[in-house]
UniProtKB/TrEMBL annotation:
Name of the protein described by the UniProt record: Acyl-phosphate glycerol 3-phosphate acyltransferase
Domain Phospholipid/glycerol acyltransferase: start-end pairs: 72-186
Nuclease recorded as keyword: no
MF annotations from Gene Ontology: 1-acylglycerol-3-phosphate O-acyltransferase activity
Stored SMART domains: PlsC (SM00563)
Pathway it works in: Lipid metabolism
Keyword terms of this UniProt record: Acyltransferase, Membrane, Transferase, Transmembrane, Transmembrane helix
Pfam families referenced in this protein's UniProt entry, alphabetically: Acyltransferase
Length: 262
């Protein structure tokens, strides 16, 4: 039954995305850019609704009081395709840092260009850094929220932290708070798999890390707060009713946490 529901949801997700891009493009293209956010927000909310109705996968978000005013950096845990779109409705005017090739995709890429997302050339570190700094500086001046995944790529739940230095350079350059975001969405929407498991994806918006910390202080604060919250959420799901199947790396982390608690 899980496989059947997952297959149905995946079809609905991609088909509805195509339809939305075609039908809503005229509405998205006219008027002020900030007003065009209703289109991707509607798309994100509808796909989360489909996920709930078809697969029984819900979500709960806490910690909205930790969001500062104006421009700042958002640092979500990256485990799943879910966390690439589920956050869109929650921020006033987010800007994602992504590979520039995504902007070349017909229809989808047009949406990214319209919302002034920051595209980078991953083949050239120097060019990528310049693009990020320029785009991020302009975004912060406009009071936008910059979304960057500190580990760069999707990591399975329970995996050892692999945080990159890029987020510190951005933090140091922009001198704004960084808001970590913890979740274990990868348990319910696993990476590189089509299965979608029922349950509740809990998301925690953590307290912002203030500007001005050294690299060691910043990275320690980011990793400890994010990973500590993720470990707690991992245990909550494991000990809760009807948990989804835990991949080996997540089960190993659970065993380690339970052993350390003794």
């Amino acid at each position: 039954m899980t496989a059947l529901r997952s297959a149905l949801y995946n079809f609905v997700f991609y088909f509805s995305t195509l339809i939305y891009m075609i039908v809503l493009l005229p509405f998205f293209s006219i008027g002020k850019r900030i007003n065009a956010w209703w289109v991707p927000r509607f798309w994100a909310r509808s796909n989360m609704w489909f996920l709930k109705i078809i697969c029984g996968t819900k979500h709960e978000v806490s910690g909205f009081e930790n969001m500062p005013e104006g421009g700042y950096i958002l640092a979500p845990k990256h485990q799943s395709a879910w966390d690439t779109f589920a956050f869109v409705p929650w921020w006033p005017d987010p800007v994602y840092i992504l590979k520039r090739e995504l902007k070349w995709i017909p229809l989808f890429g047009w949406f990214l260009v319209r919302m002034k997302m920051i595209g980078i050339d991953r083949g050239s570190r120097e060019t990528a850094v310049k693009s990020i700094n320029k785009g991020a500086t302009e975004a912060i001046k406009d009071g936008r929220q910059i979304v960057i995944y500190p580990e760069g790529t999707r990591r399975p739940p329970g995996a050892k932290p692999a945080y990159k230095a890029g987020i510190y350079h951005l933090y140091e350059n922009l001198k704004v708070p960084v808001v970590p975001i913890a979740h274990v969405a990868g348990l319910f929407w696993p990476r590189r798999k089509f299965l979608r498991y029922p349950g509740t994806i809990k998301v925690e918006i953590l307290k912002p890390i203030p500007p001005g910390l050294s690299r060691a202080e910043f990275m320690d604060a980011l990793i400890s707060s994010t990973e500590g919250a993720c470990d707690r959420l991992l245990l909550e799901v494991y000990e809760g009713p009807n948990p989804p199947p835990f991949p080996p790396v997540a089960q190993a982390r659970i065993d380690e946490l339970k052993k350390n608690a003794v």
